[in-house]
Amino acid sequence: MIITSVRLHRLSIPLVAPFTTSFGTEHTKEALIVEIGADTAAGAVTGWGECVAMEEPLYSPEYVDGCAEVIRRWLVPALVGAEGLVAETVAHHLRHVVGHPMAKAAVEMAVLDAQLRAGGQSFAQYLGGVRATVPSGVSVGIQESIEQTLRVVDGYLTEGYVRIKLKIAPGWDIELVRAVRRMFGDDIPLQVDANAAYTLVDSPTLRRLDEFDLLLLEQPLAEGDLRQHAELASRLRTPICLDESVTSATSAADAISLGAAQVINIKPGRVGGYLEAVRIHDLARAHGVAVWCGGMVETGLGRSANAALASLPGFVLPGDISASARFYAVDITEPVEMVDGQVAVDTAPGAGRAPLPEVMARFRVGECEVFAR
Ligand code: NPQ
Ligand code: MG
Predict the structure, then answer these.
(1) Does residue 203 have its Cβ closer than 6 Å to ligand 1?
(2) Residue-level pLDDT at 357
């Protein structure tokens, strides 16, 4: 294909409730959507990509307005002149730019979406999906009280979510998990996510989680602490799952080799795109390491693409792929639905759904034409 136009859309979308993690509270989703126009053998097509970077660099070094700048100044100029551009060569054309996986992933997703729309193939078909639906888990933010958390968890279980993930932080961990287990029993699939809030000094506290039979403990230590995660894993029975630490197939291989990750949370944005996400899936599967698809509070665009990824055979644990309604009263695409604990994998060409212009207009806080031929 040849890229004929690139437009960035900055949106601020209200959340149904504030979402609090160990690193902060979000009231809105600060979204960045990449729209690419391309000429292909099948004619002119539009491709859509979603950048998952947050408003502030608290989860990872990237942040949404920084991503827009990197896309505008360095990524798009490196692609517009490329002859015979395909999604499979986007990462190669962008390799001179150090880091910025979330910015790169957004651009690659838009190119892939355009390519698959032109070719009439869905994300799931292209990526190698084997399931028509994926089990739907939900991530529960830090609440005002344990009682409030129990009410929120009860609501999600009643809705049908098949797995609960509790956000934890120092001082908001053992008694929380104990209360949830006491109220809902030992049979509900339950896991916790620390978003890097602990250090190895906390291992006696974290070891107390072992009595609650959790599916996993997600990212207890800092992003760069692979060796420390391996040490912690040797002290705990609960499997360690890495999120922030896995930024590429290379770091996934390091984590597996070191014994730092018994499970891996794959987020396409964090690792530079859906193609690298599939490579991590393949690597983990070859090593017998379970993976599941994480979430970054995506709009329906990224949410649908994540469901497609999660339909690959190595995704053996429920992901953070909840319904649009978990976060949004109004999504910018047709909402992703959860029915009987499952999210359907879209079968339409490309990412399955596209942003609705009138809804984007409602939430738009910025727009930039990066390139037009
Ligand atoms: C995680 N996500 O697994 C994250 C981090 C996270 C679903 O738990 C706005 C945008 C708020 C992205 C809060 C879930 C967010 C966000 C948390 C991502 O670690
Ligand atoms: Mg996480």
Answers:
(1) no
(2) 97
